[in-house]
Amino acid sequence: MKGEGLATLTRIMLVDDHLEFRNLMVELLEGQPDLEVTAQAGSLTEARSQVATAKFDVVVLDLGLPDGNGADLIGELHEANPEGSVLIMSASLHPTNIERAMRAGAAEVLDKLSSPKEVICTVRRLGNA
To answer: How far is CA 42 from the centre of its chain?
Structure first.
């Protein structure tokens, strides 16, 4: 569809334990005509149960989840969808955690305090990569 001048729909999976943050992200992302949130999870366990069936181009992934580190999920996400991208979006951006996530295959890292414009632009770029 890119060649026809139409925007490609980017499908997004959100993995964050804070429901309020996920709700804000859904509102932000789905307010864009080319972005759609297709799956949500609040833990590694919930995310793992959806990975095989969820349709996603970009996963917005928190590192600090109640049942482990989000970086532990990245390999499974790439296995389920090799063309998909992982955007780490976390408030806990300790250099060790960031390095671990990047080694696991994360494409980009943003702080949860990033501007809405930066989040949208990053998701679009990763979704069209």
So the answer is: 12
| 2: in domain | no
What whole-number distance in Å separates Cα of residue 54 and Cα of residue 32?
20
pTM over 0.90: yes
Please indicate, yes or no, if residue 79 is contained in any of the structural domains: yes
Q: What tens digit of pLDDT does each residue of 78-118 get?
A: 999 999 999 999 987 889 989 999 999 999 999 999 999 99
The domain that holds 120 is classified in CATH as 3.40.50.2300
Q: What is the pLDDT of residue 3?
A: 39
Number of independent structural domains in the chain: 1
Q: Domain of residue 42: give its range.
A: 8-127
**Residue 1 half-sphere exposure, CB side, CA atoms within 13 Å?**
7
* 21/111 Cα distance (integer angstroms): 13
Q: Report the distance separating Cα 4 and Cα 65, nearest Å.
A: 41
Residues 9-27: pLDDT tens digits? 999 999 999 999 999 999 9
